[in-house]
Amino acid sequence: MTLQQLKYIIALEEYRHFARAADVCNVSQPGLTIQLKNLEEEIGIQLFDRSKVPLKPTALGMEIIEKAKKILREADEIRDFIIHSKDTLQGEVRLGVISTLSPYLIPLFISAVKATLPEMHFTIKESHTLQLMQDLETGVLDVALMATPTGRTGLREYPVFNEPFVAYLYPSHPMAGQEFYALLPEDRQELLLLQNEYCYNAQLLDICAIEDGRKIKGQFTYEISSIETLKNMVRADLGFAIVPELSIAHEVDHKLYKSFADPKPVREISLVVAASFSRKLLLEKMSESLWSCLPESLKKEFSYRKIQWNDSPYFVKSTKGF
Q1: Which end of the chain is more exposed for a tag (fewer CB within 10 A), N or C?
Q2: DSSP character at residue 255
Q3: CATH number attached to the domain at 91-163+267-301
Q4: HTH lysR-type domain location, by residue (predicted)?
Q5: Helices (H), the chain
């Protein structure tokens, strides 16, 4: 029994004529007749007395038609509820954010989203990429703000902006006095990575054309878990770093960082959801809020090359077993 079959018997009851009912239902008369026969055989009840002109429902058929009308009304209510739920801008959103982005963008986003989504409550979780993807797939999170593409078929990605990477240099670095940074061979040996940030590290290694970050000499044995710690180590002449542009938005000493020449290496930042997520209007409003709070430098058009991470040899080797 299908909703379409119920629509057919309701139309037959209303118009009492196969041809007119078929026309109203946008189906051929033979098609409607076959569907009626299939339904009657399934339930074991004759719904219409075909010997009558015009067509007339049987007594049991009329009771079933009345129930069918109720079922279709309730189905319409469910459809209306789903449409309303998709478009509602109220309730709670569980938002995950990668830790290399959260400290710099989330304070700006919170200020902007208060005006755009005043009736939404956001619970924000900062974590690394692998954990965020797992939480999206298991339903722990509704939305994640992270670098893409993920390569996961069960996730949907909605790009918001491209964030350039910049070189972070110690004061005596040979490129400190140049307008743009160009990679030096010795920088590959001094590149500082973040512990457990496999997607972020994979992007840095791609920029520096290094296949395996574990082979970099001079790495410290203790864990570096934040970009701010990493930058402080560069200031102390303990290494070289590549950081996202938002992390230096409020830096006073412009000599410590240099942009890459065009095409600039960038990471694509997207809102990511599970494939079953249906609240598209919410995503649109969140994207608008994120875009509105970005520095003007990130809104301008520029030549870039997107740095991916999910297909990096380093990422594949480092995350094996997760």
Answers
A1: C
A2: G
A3: 3.40.190.10
A4: 1-58
A5: 3-15, 18-24, 29-43, 59-87, 102-116, 129-138, 185-190, 198-207, 227-235, 280-292, 296-299, 313-318
